[in-house]
Specification:
Elements: H1 2-28, E1 41-44, E2 54-59, E3 64-69, H2 70-81, H3 88-108, E4 118-119, H4 131-137, H5 143-155, E5 161-164, E6 167-168, H6 184-188
Parallel strand pairs: 2-4
Antiparallel strand pairs: 1-5, 2-3, 5-6
């Protein structure tokens, strides 16, 4: 008798459980409409620029925090990430991507570095080099020209960030490409981003 009751309870339980399983499967695997095309990436200034006038930068070598102007910080980042001899448009693109990545990281990594917003390590947050060290690495005859190029790239793009569907993107970037990029999750693991898919890239031409 007991076995029969247990069997009936089990049947009733399964009657509820099976629909739940199937319902959840369909809910967690949405079918994308073929008509829904992904939106384009855009460069705009929709975020509140005043919220990020200054940032707290953690210097990992000295474990000290420095409060710096965002655009001055970006000059140090851009000069660490891309050769200043590159075309001005490339430097501007780097400035926009670095600004986007900085703000996205500050929002996403809140609390990761204690009171600091972001650190100066390329293996953790984003590369940074002091102006003094940067100038030392350049030949004396191009120092002023190169630094002015970096400053112009940052200043001429002030407030500009990359967005996708109105949201600031996770602007992961790399120094070069062999003709085709890798899907972001294939490199970093974790979630996928509709705007970081594998694409053909133009090969660098010798000028
Ligand atoms: Zn960091």
């Amino acid at each position: 008798m007991k076995k029969t009751i247990i069997f009936i309870i089990l049947i009733i339980f399964l009657c509820f459980l099976i629909p739940i399983i199937f319902t959840q499967r369909f809910e967690t695997a949405p079918v994308l409409s073929e008509n829904k095309k992904p939106q384009e990436l855009q460069v705009d200034s929709t975020y509140d620029y005043n919220d990020f006038t200054t940032i707290k930068l953690l210097h990992t070598a000295s474990n000290s925090i420095e409060e710096v102007n965002l655009d001055e910080y970006l000059c140090n980042v851009v000069s660490a990430e891309i050769p200043a001899s590159y075309n001005m448009e490339a430097l501007k693109a780097q400035a926009v991507v670095a600004r986007t990545y900085t703000i996205y990281t500050i929002i996403k990594n809140k609390g990761k570095h204690g009171n600091a917003d972001i650190c100066d390590s390329s293996s953790c947050c984003q590369a940074w080099i002091s102006k003094e060290n940067r100038l030392e690495k350049w030949n004396e005859d191009v120092r002023t020209e190169y630094w002015n190029k970096i400053v112009e790239a940052v200043n001429s793009t002030i407030g500009e960030v990359v967005t996708y569907e109105g949201e600031m993107i996770n602007a992961l970037y790399h120094a070069n490409s062999g003709g085709k990029t890798e899907i972001a999750s294939g490199v970093w693991g974790g979630g996928d981003y509709p705007y970081l898919q594998s694409v053909e890239t133009a090969r660098r031409r010798r000028i």
